[in-house]
Amino acid sequence: MVQVGDIVVLGTGLRYAVLEFLGNASGGQDVRLIRRNADGTYSSFQKSAEFLVPAETPVFEPGDEVTIDGFKGTYMSREADGDVARVMLEPRRRQLSGGGFVQIEAGIARASFALLVLQNRKVT
User: What percent of the chain has pLDDT over 90?
Assistant: First the structure.
């Protein structure tokens, strides 16, 4: 059985990350899959869980350097339900368009584990 964040292969040969599990009208379980396109956008769709072929279960260790939406940080942990990752983002400075800057201190971010996988592992 696959989990959120696992990488699966479809019959087309394309690899997707498991984003979430959903119930379907027939009482079974569907999975929402997601992948990053070459242009940086994302594609997702829903598929029956029984037709998935597991390819990889990505693992992050506390202290691993990661990025979330371009922000650098350090992986901390995965929350109990497994769908959310906790990342300590590095402090950063943002330049304002009118001049000046905003200093953003280090802080903990919560992010979808599947998106963490897509942004930090090669899924082609």
Answer: 68
